[in-house]
Amino acid sequence: MMIEANGIDLHVEQRGAGGPALVFLHYWGGSSRTWQHVVDALSPDYRTVAIDQRGWGKSAAPEAGYALSDLAGDVLAVVDSLALESYILVGHSMGGKAAQLAASQRPRGLRGLVLVAPAPPTPLALPLDARQGMVHAYNSRESIVATLQQVLAPDGLSDGDLDTVIADSLTGASSAKAAWPLATSQEDITAVVPLIDVPVIVISGEHDLVDPPEVLRREVLPRIPQSTLVVLPGVGHLLPLEAPTDLANVIKAFVLAQTRGGFFALPEAQQEVALTRCGDCGMARLTASTTAPRRP
């Protein structure tokens, strides 16, 4: 469905029912389809709202207006348009940085924040020539495949997911492709993210080359004191495609903690938890990390 929000037409995919609603923001190069496997796992129990951010997917693509304030304003306008009274923001990479800014405004109804391999609140630490090269990363099938193999998902994706990523990256507007590396990624929101007043979980891939776990430990956790880190083993930056089941399980555990009480209801107890599996049943579960630093 198309929603006119924040002065722009945004495409939104909705499924399921039940609260709190889960509102998804994709990475630079993706679309609402990035979340399809995660939504498949969660929509039987929760209302899911996946947004094509401006310039991507089926949403409108203005020539300008790609600042973080625009992206954050878009998602909050969608929330208002859908009259979501209780919701959790789930942002991946670029979408994670937009979600941080949105959450820092303490919007009514926000119950939690899930940051999936998020861009930190600090400026992207890449020189200008490297960021200028990023502008062309999605110009052709060949350049997209090279970006996946070298940076985003070196361990590979399924054929179906590869086709989705290529199609989404190719159809992105040139203005959106350029805005993130040249401008939006350089925004510094460190002054406002401490204002976030809801529980936060940060989910990282062990082999992420874009925003590795050590970067998130250094740049995100100290600035959002009520945040907890989970590192998913053996995967890279595209967690919604590489490990959708594990990601959905972590999100579900986080949501249940906010609605029923549980580990994440006491985020000050531990800064990092680990995803482990039951040796007998194979089910995933979250346990306190033996290597994680405890909060003072």
Automatic annotation (TrEMBL):
Name of this protein: Pimeloyl-ACP methyl ester carboxylesterase
Domain AB hydrolase-1: 22-249
Coiled-coil boundaries: none
One Pfam family this sequence matches: Abhydrolase_6
GO molecular function terms noted in the UniProt entry: hydrolase activity
Cellular component aspect of the GO annotation: membrane
Keywords: Hydrolase
Taxonomic placement: Bacteria, Pseudomonadati, Pseudomonadota, Gammaproteobacteria, Lysobacterales
Entry superkingdom: Bacteria
InterPro entries named in the record: AB_hydrolase_1, AB_hydrolase_fold, AB_hydrolase_sf
